[in-house]
Amino acid sequence: MAQIMKRIKLHRSLRAGARSREGGELPMMKVGGLQLALQAAILAIVFSATGRAVATDAAAVSNSALEAKMEYCQFCHGPSGQGYRGFYPIPRLAGQQTEYVENQLRAFVERRRPNPIMSNVAHVLSPAMITALATKFRSFNAKPLGGAPKGLVATGEKIFQNGVPEDNVAACAACHGPEALGHEQTPRLAGQLYLYIVKELTNWGKERGQIPAHPDTSFIMAPVAHSLTKPQIEGVAAYLSDLK
């Protein structure tokens, strides 16, 4: 509970500071205010309660083996893991939370996250290599590729920082952080590709948490993604895509 209160207090203090600088007040939450607070608390509880998996000694992987795998990964995910903005958007991994990358690679192996290409890539990786790759990508700080519609950014920022109270959608910042840098199993979203975020939020129920008997933290996002309209999703994606 202490961690939950710390996150909520931090988010509230940041928003209060923004209000004072702007010389005005943000709109007050109406009926959905309490529900949003409870939703944010539940998200924090689940992410915190999952804990970290048993640590693996990344040093057990040789530098040559790691560099060979990194070169293979960057063929699709771009130089320094900046992502690929082609016909089929491939996500940015640069600066991503280590634990999140580890968990997603395991999800590909266990078919909880269906993706034929990534399932084939991930299932040959040892636990030590998974940790080494995740740690390496975490150390990168590639410049965001950008390219999102600028006219959507303001709307996206409002939704990310404040949520959509009338639809009981909690602020994204409550879990992903005010700068969208993530924390442990909660992914970094800052600088993520616009089209990739749009694709993931639009198809969340088809691409995440596909084995109900073995749920993971991805199920938390299902009601949030389902509650956002396409214009709202595009706004959030546009805002996040240029964050550093």
The succession of helices and strands, N to C, reads HHHHHHHHHHHH
* Approximate shape: globular
What's the name of the CATH homologous superfamily of the largest domain?
Answer: Cytochrome c-like domain
**Unreliable segments of 5+ consecutive residues:** 1-5, 25-38, 40-56
Provide the CATH top-level class of the largest domain.
Answer: Mainly Alpha
- Bin the helical content: 40-55%
The main β sheet shows up as: none
- What's the number of helices? 12
Taken together, the total number of domains comes to: 2
The N- and C-terminal alpha carbons lie at a distance of 30 Å
Q: What percentage of amino acids are in beta strands?
A: under 5%
Structural class: mainly alpha
As a whole number of angstroms, the C-alpha radius of gyration is 18 Å
Mean pLDDT: 82
Q: What would your notes on this structure say?
A:
This protein has helices at residues 2-22, 33-49, 63-77, 98-109, 116-122, 127-138, 153-162, 173-176, 194-202, 204-207, 221-227, 230-241. The protein is mainly α and 244 residues long. The protein has two domains: 2-22 and 31-52 and 145-241, Cytochrome Bc1 Complex, Chain D, domain 2, CATH 1.10.760; 58-138, Orthogonal Bundle (Cytochrome Bc1 Complex, Chain D, domain 2). Helix 4 (98-109) crosses helix 5, helix 7 packs across helix 12 (230-241) and helix 9 (194-202) packs antiparallel against helix 12. The protein is globular, with a radius of gyration of 18 Å.
